[in-house]
Design a protein that fits this description.
Blueprint lengths: L1 H28 L2 H40 L8 H29 L4 H18 L1 H15 L8 E4 L2 E8 L3 E5 L5 E5 L6 E3 L5 E10 L4 H18 L8 E8 L3 E10 L4 H32 L1
Helix pairs in contact: 2-3, 6-7
Subcellular location: Cell membrane
InterPro entries: LSM_dom_sf (IPR010920), MS_channel_1st (IPR049142), MscS_beta-dom_sf (IPR023408), MscS_channel_2nd (IPR006685), MscS_channel_TM-2 (IPR011014), YbiO_bact (IPR045276)
Membrane topology: Multi-pass membrane protein
């Protein structure tokens, strides 16, 4: 009898628990306020997702248009630089947008954001202190590329280093000097840059002559030599100008010659000016010796 009563009580308890669970489920399913809250939260989360995707795509479009305008600028060399920067900017935008989206969604789900934001702030501060130079290099590299301060192939001087730009990275710039040395310059240390490849260059040559030589004859000789140079050379934009006496001493005077030329060929043009001047002087000397020999023979 006791066994039967115990079994009856056990079965009754199970039935009561089942009924209680059923009632709880029913109350949960029929809780209109709860379902309204869930529905509105789901709609807000969906709206956050849509707006985040739209904002990211809009910023991607702005980045593409900005880089396209930069690429059509002064130098169209190495377009992969613009592709690299564009992709990196898009990654930054995507990461920031998705981070904000996740934070907003967690807030909708009732997660306390203050501890998460505080932890992220402390982590970011620690990383920032540990990588200040790296961040400075990368930011400077962005501005060098986007502002087109110099491009691959330009001849530049950075501080005391002068050479041709071989590579522009986000962290460093590589220069090759005319004697072959390779200089790696961190972008963060680039403060003053002289670019010799922008605009029109000016080739300047100073030629010394003895005071025993007549000034008018020298200037006339050099003018003829510069006309010959312009006819046979493509380096000068126009006929080099014989400016006249640049300096004067007791034994000699110096004639200055200047010529406009494209960027990057100034040194070559200066060598050609000196070569044509020397050839003209040698030709004049040969004619003088020939004339003296003929006069002596007579």
């Amino acid at each position: 009898m006791r066994l039967a009563n115990w079994r009856f009580q056990q079965s009754t308890g199970v039935i009561d628990e089942a009924m209680s669970f059923k009632n709880k489920v029913w109350d949960w399913l029929t809780n209109t306020g709860m379902w309204e809250t869930v529905l509105f939260s789901a709609l807000r989360i969906l709206l956050i997702l849509i707006l985040t995707r739209f904002a990211i795509k809009l910023l991607f479009s702005v980045i593409d248009r900005s880089l396209e305008r930069q690429e059509k600028g002064r130098m169209q060399v190495n377009p992969r630089r613009f592709i690299t920067v564009g992709e990196l900017l898009k990654n930054v935008v995507s990461f920031a947008g998705n981070f904000v989206m996740v934070m907003l969604i967690l807030g909708e789900l009732g997660v306390q954001l203050a501890p998460l934001i505080a932890g992220a702030g402390v982590l970011g501060l620690a990383i920032g202190f540990g990588a200040q130079n790296l961040v400075k290099d990368v930011i400077t590299g962005f501005f060098i590329i986007l502002e087109d301060q110099f491009a691959v192939g330009d001849v530049v001087q950075i501080g005391t280093l002068k050479g041709t730009v071989e590579m522009i990275g986000l962290r460093s710039t590589r220069l090759v000097s005319w004697t072959g040395e390779v200089h790696i310059v961190p972008n963060g240390s680039i403060t003053n840059v002289t670019n010799y490849s922008i605009g029109t260059a000016l080739a300047v040559v100073d030629l010394p002559f003895s005071n025993s030589r007549k000034l008018e004859d020298t200037i006339e000789l050099l003018k003829k030599a510069m006309l010959e140079l312009k006819d046979s050379s493509s380096l000068a934009n126009r006929v080099p100008t014989v400016l006249g006496v640049q300096s004067l001493t007791a034994s000699e005077y110096v004639i200055r010659i200047a010529a406009d030329c494209p960027p990057g060929v100034r040194a070559d043009l200066e060598r050609e000016i000196q070569m044509y001047a020397k050839e003209a002087l040698e030709e004049e000397e040969a004619l003088r010796l020939t004339a003296e020999a003929e006069k002596t023979a007579e």
